[in-house]
Give the backbone structure.
Amino acid sequence: MTHQVSSHVLMRLLITSYFIAMSLGMIPDNALSVFLIPVLPDPLAMHAMHALVLILSCVILFNYRRRLAALSLALIVFYSSYVSLLAGGDVAAFWRDLALMGGLLLTADLSCTPNGSEQSSGTLSGTNAHGMRMSGRSSGAVCDDRAFRKDFDIARAG
């Protein structure tokens, strides 16, 4: 049995390893605890946030509800980083967090099936919510836009 490792799996491993290391205290970052400070005292907020980041990272890593976990973690990273920036934080740290958020959004893979699982092989076909025929590989469904092109050609000629 041959097992292929895709670039998405490697990216997911790289991104989640960073967040797992951060949640275990290997990478010092207290900015994430800002997310829970309004509801919990400082030390408890830090420990709860580390636990939440560890849980979300493991959920992403093991591909169980990956999309929901990645989007939740991206939201937490953005909110915490933005609040830290407004409180006089470093712009470089904000941009680093935006890059991490971009990696999380790529990890969420919004082009795959609605439950967040990857398609292993085959093609997707059918129609989308707008009635357009969809075809293509699982890495991103491609819309059949011939009807729109025809309309565009008519508008351009007129």
